[in-house]
Amino acid sequence: MKAAELMTKEVVSVSPDMPVREIARLLLSHQVSAAPVVDQSGSVIGMVSEGDLLSPNNGEHAVRRERWLARLAEGEPLSPEFLASLPQPGRTARNVMSSPVIEVTDETDAGEIADLLVQFRIKRVPVTRDGRLVGIISRVDLLRAMAEREKPHSSAPAHGSVIAEAIARLDHRFSGRNGDKSASAGRKPATATAEGGLSVADFHKLMADFARHQAEATEAARRAEAAHRQERVKQLVAEHIRDERWNALLHGAREAAERGEEEFLLLRFPSDLCIDQGRAINASLPDWPKTLRGEAAEIYLHWERELKPRGFHLMARVLDYPNGMPGDIGLFLGWTG
Fold first, then answer.
1. HSE of 178, CA atoms in CB hemisphere, 13 A
2. CB 106 within 8 A of CB 129
3. What domains, with CATH codes, occur in the chain?
4. What gap in Å lies between CA 29 and CA 76, rounded to an integer?
5. pTM score > 0.70 for this model?
6. 100 - beta bridge partners?
């Protein structure tokens, strides 16, 4: 079963600049405990929950607000005392949200989603299509799906139908490509006319034709590279870091240390995977981790939970600058300095 079949499509979301008081009202009025933070392009840049609205520094105060939340979630009006208790009420979703975010695509399998919820100890994941929010899946959604599959008359789709569906998708994807013509198909070389001999105008035309063909080839290469980068971004969002992959990366880092190296490249990815196309990383801004998505975000969370307490560093650097803009970005694990 895919995420598209499980997800809740009517998602309660907030903007990055929504004040915490409005977020509290929104969560309580819709009786949800968290909401994705979505920018103007529809990309998920964080998650904000009831816990993010509570101050972690005052245990007694936080417990009291937890009781208010429990009562208010049952439909009672928002208490002025509760609003006054919110830490720094002038803050916005951008200030309190949790990021980076683990996300899945609408094609992600239910089993993989369950693994992510367990692995990262989270209660829900946003579902995206082409980088835009289209739904959200919670533990309840997965439990509901499991209950449906346990019904006596329910049955999983036959293996043959799954294969047939995959073949159909491939046919659709590649249909019509044989009929496409490249920019150079059927092109005849420009030559001077036999009548009248050569002229400067003929040579100018040859030069203009060459420049045009070069421009067409450059544009075709640019489009192909852009398509490749977008496909890579989709893969990095759709694929997830499993234990064996993470262990393989750690083994590679250990081998790098044995060779006397000070860091190891964990992941190379297009800057398009970042919600800001790599600008924060390029400018070395301290909040660059909040811009990560897909596998890059998962690696960061693995590092933060497992390796940061042991003294390891995680660094992000722009690796190339095609046309003067950030191209690929590398996530490096370091153990010196």
1. 3
2. yes
3. 3-149 (3.10.580.10), 243-334 (no CATH)
4. 9
5. no
6. none
